[in-house]
Fold this sequence. Notes:
Helix content: 25-40%
Low-confidence stretches: none
Number of helices: 3
Amino acid sequence: MNKAYYERHTEELTAPIAAAFGVRIYDVDFSKEGSDYALCVFIDKDGGVTIEDCENVSRALSDVLDAEDYIAESYTLYVSSPGLTRKLTKDRHFEQSIGSEVEIRLFRPVKTAGGSGKELSGILVSFDASEVTIREEGAEEDLVLERKNVAACRLAFTD
């Protein structure tokens, strides 16, 4: 299995399909769920994705995937919105989310204004290849985190 290739090639194949339906690709993930594999394509657009958007992309992409037949494993295709609490996995996700509240789970705990811990939240201030900087509520200084210590980062749900 070549996860990175499957994801990259699927994104390349999906790009013109997404554009034709007025949506953009947010992310592609190929992973094992129990004993089965899933190919998840997350699409987005201003104003939010509809079920019809997902159906249109899924039908068109399914035909292309069948014709290309580059994924060796049996899998189920899912096309959906990344959701309100979307994962930030790529640089473009972080770039689009600067100024937004994020929730971060770390591999190792760090000292923060409120003590120490492995789960943090704050406003995403900046990022680069090696660091993510957030501003925790009530903190006097921004918190700089090593990106290699970030297990997961997602937008926080705010109402």
